[in-house]
């Protein structure tokens, strides 16, 4: 189960002092300024009580759910294609973080396949994640009953990823 798996990863992360290499830390270069900066107090925020006066609330909920599914597609159903030893130097929570990076890039660049491939190849992580990227993309492509985006989008992203990765490895080799 997704939640059980995530909970186990969070427990392990808690025992290890909440240190995750795959999450960028842009605030570190400003840490001295942040420490001496002025602190502000916020007033408590209160939400208004929910109103249930709608007569056709079930219809509205169905419409809202449909619109939410269109705007925010299903996230991740794991498809494990490769053996676990392919994940080198990856903490258990790193897999979850990188999967979320990949899904966010696929969602944000839907329709812009070349930009999507560029950003997927240059995620801010310190370990190789090509296997994880392949599993995540194929998990989305094979999601039932329908993938979040048209299958041609995933196909073109995979082709552009192969081109980008070949260019990257060719430049590193020379």
Automatic annotation (TrEMBL):
<protein>
    <submittedName>
        <fullName>Uncharacterized protein</fullName>
    </submittedName>
</protein>
<dbReference type="GO" id="GO:0005634">
    <property type="term" value="C:nucleus"/>
</dbReference>
<dbReference type="GO" id="GO:0000339">
    <property type="term" value="F:RNA cap binding"/>
</dbReference>
<dbReference type="GO" id="GO:0000184">
    <property type="term" value="P:nuclear-transcribed mRNA catabolic process, nonsense-mediated decay"/>
</dbReference>
<dbReference type="InterPro" id="IPR016024">
    <property type="entry name" value="ARM-type_fold"/>
</dbReference>
<dbReference type="GO" id="GO:0006406">
    <property type="term" value="P:mRNA export from nucleus"/>
</dbReference>
<dbReference type="GO" id="GO:0005846">
    <property type="term" value="C:nuclear cap binding complex"/>
</dbReference>
<dbReference type="GO" id="GO:0003729">
    <property type="term" value="F:mRNA binding"/>
</dbReference>
<dbReference type="InterPro" id="IPR027159">
    <property type="entry name" value="CBP80"/>
</dbReference>
């Amino acid at each position: 189960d997704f939640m059980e798996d995530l909970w186990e990863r969070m427990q392990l992360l808690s025992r290890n002092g909440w240190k995750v290499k795959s999450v960028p830390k842009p605030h570190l270069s400003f840490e001295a300024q942040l420490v001496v900066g002025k602190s502000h107090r916020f007033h408590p925020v209160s939400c208004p009580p929910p109103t249930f006066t709608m007569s056709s609330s079930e219809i509205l909920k169905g419409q809202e759910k449909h619109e939410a599914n269109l705007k925010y597609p299903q996230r991740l159903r794991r498809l494990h294609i490769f053996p676990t030893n392919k994940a080198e130097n990856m903490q258990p929570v790193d897999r979850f973080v990188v999967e979320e990076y990949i899904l966010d890039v696929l969602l944000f660049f839907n329709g812009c396949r070349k930009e999507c491939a560029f950003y997927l190849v240059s995620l801010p992580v310190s370990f190789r994640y090509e296997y994880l990227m392949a599993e995540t993309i194929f998990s989305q492509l094979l999601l039932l009953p329908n993938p979040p985006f048209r299958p041609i989008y995933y196909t073109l992203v995979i082709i552009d990823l192969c081109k980008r990765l070949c260019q990257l490895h060719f430049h590193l080799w020379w």
